């Protein structure tokens, strides 16, 4: 599930890209105005509504490129608008407003995957854990972990912020998103499940009493070896 941001100033008339409503991605929409970009929420992919205002969409695309937007940019266009789009717009992809859910989902995956490859940060290895960002997978001592998407996100966040202490509220904001309405109990539940799946390496996620959690980093000779089948628990 990706975090998507839609930039559109269309008034009424239904969703900008109807197929997004049929997918499980988290979608936020803000007006397609330069001033709105200052406090825009973070996103894995940014969609720009170019259905009715090609000139405005082109200008917004260039502003996003100039300000160094990290997320891939995808234009939402009508078939007639395709003829106006060129490389100088600085967008990563275009999609017709009539595109079906499967096509939209595929384009999102490809856009996110290309961006990860471009950034050259597809694998993290630390303290006996290997995390592959491009495939959303992780291994302990070379053995795959069966993680949910949110468990993967939590592990990834911990591993990329080693030794730092985070409160439950901070983890909710960073991993679940600022608009998540659940309580901090969600963090405790996911940490407990993640520790159980880490097995011998459960101590990597440490509890800081009355504060929150942190990712403990160990030297390779300090990491517990994989437990052989039949060993005592």
UniProtKB/TrEMBL annotation:
<dbReference type="InterPro" id="IPR039420">
    <property type="entry name" value="WalR-like"/>
</dbReference>
<dbReference type="InterPro" id="IPR036388">
    <property type="entry name" value="WH-like_DNA-bd_sf"/>
</dbReference>
<feature type="DNA-binding region" description="OmpR/PhoB-type">
    <location>
        <begin position="121"/>
        <end position="217"/>
    </location>
</feature>
<dbReference type="InterPro" id="IPR016032">
    <property type="entry name" value="Sig_transdc_resp-reg_C-effctor"/>
</dbReference>
<dbReference type="InterPro" id="IPR001867">
    <property type="entry name" value="OmpR/PhoB-type_DNA-bd"/>
</dbReference>
<protein>
    <submittedName>
        <fullName>Response regulator transcription factor</fullName>
    </submittedName>
</protein>
<dbReference type="Pfam" id="PF00486">
    <property type="entry name" value="Trans_reg_C"/>
</dbReference>
<dbReference type="InterPro" id="IPR049170">
    <property type="entry name" value="GlnR_N"/>
</dbReference>
<feature type="domain" description="OmpR/PhoB-type">
    <location>
        <begin position="121"/>
        <end position="217"/>
    </location>
</feature>
<keyword id="KW-0238">DNA-binding</keyword>
<dbReference type="Pfam" id="PF21695">
    <property type="entry name" value="GlnR_1st"/>
</dbReference>
């Amino acid at each position: 599930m990706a975090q998507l941001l839609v930039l559109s100033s269309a008034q009424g008339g239904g969703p900008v890209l109807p197929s997004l409503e049929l997918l499980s991605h988290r979608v936020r929409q803000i007006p397609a105005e330069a001033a709105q970009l200052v406090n825009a929420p973070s996103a894995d992919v940014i969609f720009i509504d170019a259905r009715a205002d090609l000139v405005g969409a082109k200008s917004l695309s260039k502003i996003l490129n100039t300000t160094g937007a990290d997320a891939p940019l995808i234009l939402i266009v009508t078939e007639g608008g395709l003829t106006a789009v060129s490389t100088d717009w600085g967008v990563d992809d275009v999609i017709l407003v009539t595109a079906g859910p499967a096509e939209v989902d595929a384009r999102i995956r490809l856009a996110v995957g290309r961006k990860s490859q471009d950034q050259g940060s597809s694998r993290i290895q630390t303290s006996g854990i290997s995390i592959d960002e491009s495939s959303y997978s992780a291994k302990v001592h070379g053995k795959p972990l069966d993680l949910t998407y949110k468990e993967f996100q939590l592990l990834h966040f911990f591993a990329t912020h080693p030794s730092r202490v985070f409160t439950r509220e901070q983890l909710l904001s960073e991993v679940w998103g600022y608009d998540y309405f659940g309580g901090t109990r969600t963090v405790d539940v996911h940490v407990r499940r993640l520790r159980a799946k880490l097995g011998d390496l459960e101590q990597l996620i440490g509890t800081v009493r009355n504060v929150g959690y942190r990712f403990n980093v160990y030297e390779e000779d300090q990491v517990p070896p994989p437990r052989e089948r039949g060993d005592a628990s």
